[in-house]
């Protein structure tokens, strides 16, 4: 009878009917409370339904099958869902101990330990995850952020470049590559990355942001004539005040001060930083809309 | 052992399992399910992620969501516009990306069982920009709300008018606004939820025309963008510039509600509006209103002034908490600033919805400072007027609680027209076609008190006072010394017995023997009884009877033959 219920519950789960799955699993558990398959189905369907008892079922599950890495990983996710990050990290660590080559478990562990402010450990674990799965976009993307926050811009750039290589149309990766190259003074690469961004970021108004990045790079290396040309180009697509201010700044460098007040470099940098932050926020948010 | 895992999750890509919070000052990675559980609000820093329109509606509406009206909302390339790409190509791109024909949808829905029409803008579609189709969705939703006489909810997220449709998009500001004007004239509720971001032609038309304007924390709302303003005026603007909180402080919003509260706030507002205008009032259980001055406690005028000013005396928000079954505070004058010296909002008295407005003090120095000692600025009076006009529009009775030393005497108050604000309130209150009950609960300081006091019935608490000038002010002018304030208080006849005899007051709410502060619940029960008994008299009256009665009430003051005269000599001059 139990095996029939398991099959039925499994089918409900696969069909996305978590409520039915849970009900069937609980029905089965009333007779066989230590049936690992039923406990798992109850726990995972509770997790899908955002019910607090998911953790209880999955904790029971890892007692029943302590050598199953996937069970520990699912428990870790249930604990992450309720914000119990220390316990989640322990569960993910156990999953990794049992399945050291599992990139998904490593990725989960890296995020959990980062939440506990163990940055070096998080980086090491996420890098292991990318070694195990060289196409692990999530791990690469998180490495970009963690390295940036830690001030390791070169390492952040390498991770961003990997994403850009894997997904040439990834706007956030192109943006990271451009900004990190700019910050590291690798200006040819920065300009190339901004040019790439200009091509792939089709959101209205964003082309101007890419232009501003290229102009910023030319200003940084004081190639004023090239900066002027880019600014003139930028006025085709962007009539915002920032383009005009950049143009005024560059014109003053080339031809001397005119009647129009010229913004300071610090003012321009602040305005550009604000624009880039907003642009980044837009695309970072878009990732969550999947 | 054989693997027993039920299989991979079906509704998430691997990449979405952990999400970096986009708030630059927050470094958290949040497990995606936890983020969803938290309605896409970062549990670490409370950052509200932008929501796709479908998720937004799922969070706010009853199960079933919006029953989208199958009327085509189609974009039209009226100008044959092309920039680097033809407009039609851009539209196709966003139609493919979002799965929607345009940046807005509309249809009937329910919240907490209350029927509404909803229109929502999808920022993911060309930045939620408003062209003809978006204007059509908003306008049609307003027309359907009018036709069906149900409230309208519009959820905005937009960068403004759509350049690619040129002046036709500009005209949507007028098209939507005129549809909302019809809704307004017919007394249909319009709720506007402004989400991040709401700018330009959208914020300057339908998004800010709601009877109530509600926003999420930190949403950016404005006309011109912050960076454009900074570059134009060459000044650094404050970090919170154009946030919802900034707009609330500047009187432009009624409510800023965290995402987790939004649905409940909307449900509550709709419930307030669904309440019957003829609902039976609750049975009062306090002491009855006193109309015979001989039944009132005898104490000197100065003792009364001191009791009225007692820092422990219940204030408006406390009375509101005791008297009303539910209360939703609303904010803002929609002109200049939120004034904490006046509070007001929708309240339930049993099943009846009323608008309650009061001057607000505090019990500590810091509370008093925050409330400006209960002395409103012009923006406070304008907020009060806005709320009274709201009540009149929806046929809700008004209860005002008066407790102020006076309208604030200050430079800014004068610059912004304190006299005009007070005068306008007195003028408008005289003609509002709904019952108004005004109660002086503490200090009734001159015109600043009367600006909330033109009621059909005007009552006072037993130890309140009501005066044309403060006793100290009168003493300085006429006695040339503040020490004569007790004499002035007596001479001015500012206490309940004298004001009852003069006909200024229609009744007095009894207080405990030693004053309201000694037993606030009992005092509030008496106040509630007074409000209920007074509304019971007023609610059955027709609009014309109400207005005529109110006119006659104030018409008789100072008219020989009509104005009662006090025969006895006041204690101060005796």
Describe this structure in words.
The complex is a heterodimer of chains A (290) and B (574). Helix content of chain A is 78%, strand content 0%. By secondary structure, chain A is mainly alpha-helical. The longest helix of chain A has 23 residues, at 265-287. Chain A is elongated. Chain B is of the alpha/beta class and 574 residues long. Chain B is built from 21 helices and 16 strands. Chain B has helices at 32-37, 53-60, 87-98, 132-148, 166-185, 200-203, 226-233, 244-249, 259-274, 301-308, 316-323, 365-370, 378-393, 411-415, 418-429, 446-450, 471-479, 485-492, 496-502, 520-538, 543-555; strands at 18-20, 29-31, 104-111, 114-121, 152-158, 190-198, 212-215, 255-256, 326-329, 342-349, 352-359, 398-404, 436-445, 457-461, 465-467, 507-509. In chain B, the strands form 3 sheets. In chain B, strands 9, 10, 11, 12, 13, 14, 15 and 16 form an 8-stranded mixed sheet that branches. In chain B, strand 1 and strand 2 (29-31) form a beta hairpin. The longest helix of chain B has 20 residues, at 166-185. The radius of gyration of chain B is 28 Å and the shape is elongated. Chains A and B meet through helix 1, helix 3, helix 5, helix 7 and helix 9 of A and strand 1, helix 1 and helix 7 of B.
Please describe the topology of this protein.
The complex is a heterodimer of chains A (290) and B (574).
Chain A: H1 2-14, H2 18-31, H3 36-48, H4 54-64, H5 69-81, H6 85-98, H7 103-115, H8 119-132, H9 137-150, H10 153-166, H11 171-183, H12 187-200, H13 206-220, H14 224-237, H15 241-255, H16 265-287
Chain B: E1 18-20, E2 29-31, H1 32-37, H2 53-60, H3 87-98, E3 104-111, E4 114-121, H4 132-148, E5 152-158, H5 166-185, E6 190-198, H6 200-203, E7 212-215, H7 226-233, H8 244-249, E8 255-256, H9 259-274, H10 301-308, H11 316-323, E9 326-329, E10 342-349, E11 352-359, H12 365-370, H13 378-393, E12 398-404, H14 411-415, H15 418-429, E13 436-445, H16 446-450, E14 457-461, E15 465-467, H17 471-479, H18 485-492, H19 496-502, E16 507-509, H20 520-538, H21 543-555
Parallel strand pairs in B: 4-5, 5-6, 6-7, 7-8, 11-12, 12-13, 13-14, 13-15, 14-16
Antiparallel strand pairs in B: 1-2, 3-4, 9-10, 10-11
Helix pairs in contact in B: 4-5, 10-18, 11-20, 13-15, 17-18
């Amino acid at each position: 009878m139990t095996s029939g219920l398991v099959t039925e519950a499994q089918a409900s789960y696969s069909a996305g009917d978590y409520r039915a799955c849970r009900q069937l699993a609980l029905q089965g558990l009333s007779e066989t409370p230590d049936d690992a398959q039923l406990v798992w189905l109850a726990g995972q369907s509770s997790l899908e339904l955002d019910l607090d008892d998911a953790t209880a079922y999955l904790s029971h599950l890892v007692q029943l099958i302590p050598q199953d890495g996937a069970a520990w990983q699912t428990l870790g996710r249930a604990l992450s869902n309720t914000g119990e990050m220390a316990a989640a990290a322990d569960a993910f660590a156990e999953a990794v101990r049992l399945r050291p080559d599992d990139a998904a478990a490593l990725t989960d562990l890296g995020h959990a330990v980062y939440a506990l402010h163990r940055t070096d450990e998080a980086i090491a674990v996420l890098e292991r995850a990318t070694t195990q799965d060289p196409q692990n976009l999530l791990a690469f993307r998180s490495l970009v952020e963690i390295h940036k926050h830690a001030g390791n811009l070169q390492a952040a750039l390498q991770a961003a470049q990997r994403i850009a290589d894997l997904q040439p149309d990834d706007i956030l990766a192109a943006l990271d590559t451009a900004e990190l190259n700019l910050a590291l003074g690798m200006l040819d690469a920065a300009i190339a990355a901004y040019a790439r961004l200009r091509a792939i970021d089709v959101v209205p108004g964003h082309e101007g942001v890419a232009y501003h990045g290229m102009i910023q790079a030319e200003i940084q290396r004081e190639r004023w004539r090239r900066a002027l040309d880019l600014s003139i180009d930028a006025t085709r697509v962007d009539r915002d005040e920032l383009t005009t201010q950049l143009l005024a700044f560059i014109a003053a460098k080339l031809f001397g001060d005119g009647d129009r007040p010229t913004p300071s470099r610090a003012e321009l940098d602040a305005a550009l930083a604000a624009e880039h932050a907003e642009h980044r926020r837009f695309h970072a948010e878009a990732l969550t809309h999947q | 052992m054989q693997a027993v895992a039920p299989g991979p999750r079906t509704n998430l890509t691997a990449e979405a399992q952990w999400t970096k919070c986009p708030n630059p000052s927050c470094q958290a990675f949040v497990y995606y399910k936890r983020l969803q559980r938290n309605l896409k609000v970062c549990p670490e820093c409370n950052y509200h992620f932008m929501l796709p329109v479908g998720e937004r509606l799922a969070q706010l509406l009853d199960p079933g969501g919006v029953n989208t009206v199958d009327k085509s909302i189609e974009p039209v390339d009226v100008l044959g516009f092309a920039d680097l790409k033809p407009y039609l190509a851009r539209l196709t791109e966003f139609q493919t990306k979002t799965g929607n024909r345009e940046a807005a949808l509309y249809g009937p829905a329910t919240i907490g069982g209350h029927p509404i029409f909803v229109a929502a803008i999808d920022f993911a579609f060309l930045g939620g920009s408003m062209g003809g189709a978006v204007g059509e969705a908003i306008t049609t939703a307003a027309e359907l709300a009018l036709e069906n006489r149900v409230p309208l909810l519009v959820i905005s997220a937009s960068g403004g008018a759509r350049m690619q449709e040129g002046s036709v998009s500009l005209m949507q500001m007028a098209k939507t606004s005129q549809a909302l004007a019809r809704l307004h004239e017919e007394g249909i509720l319009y709720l506007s939820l402004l989400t991040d971001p709401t700018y330009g032609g959208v914020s300057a038309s339908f998004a800010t025309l709601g009877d109530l304007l509600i926003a999420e924390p930190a949403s950016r709302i404005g006309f011109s963008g912050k960076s454009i303003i900074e570059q134009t005026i060459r000044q650094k603007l404050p970090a919170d510039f154009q946030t919802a909180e900034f707009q609330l402080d500047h009187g432009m919003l009624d409510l800023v509600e965290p995402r987790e509260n939004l649905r409940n706030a909307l449900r509550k507002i709709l419930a307030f509006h669904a309440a019957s205008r003829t609902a039976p009032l609750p049975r009062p259980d306090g002491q009855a209103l006193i109309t015979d001055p001989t039944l009132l406690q005898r104490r000197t005028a100065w003792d009364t002034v001191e009791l009225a000013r007692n820092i422990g005396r219940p204030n408006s928000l406390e009375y509101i908490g005791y008297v009303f079954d539910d209360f939703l505070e609303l904010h803002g004058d929609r002109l200049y600033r939120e004034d904490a010296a006046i509070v007001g909002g929708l309240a339930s008295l049993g099943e009846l919805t009323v608008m309650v407005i009061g001057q607000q003090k505090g019990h500590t120095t810091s509370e008093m400072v925050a409330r400006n000692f209960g002395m409103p600025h012009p923006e406070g009076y304008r907020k009060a007027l806005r709320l009274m006009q709201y009540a009149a529009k929806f046929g809700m009775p008004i209860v005002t609680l008066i407790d102020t030393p006076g309208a604030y005497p200050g430079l800014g108050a004068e610059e912004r027209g304190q006299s005009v604000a007070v005068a306008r309130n007195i003028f408008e209150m005289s003609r509002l076609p709904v019952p108004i009950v005004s109660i002086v609960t503490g200090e009734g300081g001159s015109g600043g008190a009367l600006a909330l006091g033109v009621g059909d019935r005007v009552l006072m608490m037993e130890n309140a006072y009501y005066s044309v000038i403060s006793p100290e002010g009168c003493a300085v002018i006429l006695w040339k010394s503040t020490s004569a304030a007790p004499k002035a208080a007596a001479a001015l006849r500012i206490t309940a017995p004298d004001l009852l005899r003069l006909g200024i007051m229609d009744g007095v709410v009894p207080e405990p023997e030693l004053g309201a502060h000694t037993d606030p619940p009992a005092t509030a029960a008496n106040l509630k009884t007074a409000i209920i008994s007074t509304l019971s008299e007023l609610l059955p009256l027709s609009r014309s009877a109400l207005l005529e009665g109110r006119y006659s009430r104030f018409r008789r003051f100072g008219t020989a033959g009509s104005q009662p005269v006090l025969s006895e000599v006041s204690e101060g001059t005796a």
